[in-house]
Amino acid sequence: MDLKDKIVGMAKNAIPTPMPTQPTPETPIVGQPGMPMSVPGGSEPGTDNFKLMVSALFSSEVQVHIFHLQTVGAGSFAAHMALNGYYTGIQGLLDGIIESYQGKHGIITGYKSMEYKDFTSVEDLVTYFTELEGLIEMNRSNIKESYIQNQIDTIVELINSTLYKLKNLQ
Does 32 score more than 60 pLDDT? Predict the structure, then answer.
């Protein structure tokens, strides 16, 4: 079973699935112990999916900043700069998308945070961002407003720009 199938299955069942603290090839880096694939507490359809997505993005800002401060080894300067671009860019994008969503659907409560990890390698950074993008793609389908979808697209653009830099700039 690949990562996408595992995440889709967990999302469909909406049952919290504990994951090991250290990522393995079978477990995602983005999902953390005790972090359910849908976060209870919304009244609008799709609120749980949106809340999960923005909770992961909030956590990604701090997680990527931690990675940024810990980069060492071959390719570390390029990774350091790529990560700087992400964590400085995500804050404004995340603020904008949440304000747009709340303007239409009401105030979101019950955000969840994820456990933070230490930097291990540029390859693990690529895995982290790939899984983060997958989580976004899985949880955006209930958003009907095109302007919010466009804001999600801009966040995915930032993730993929960061992936390009991590993969190709040394």
Answer: no
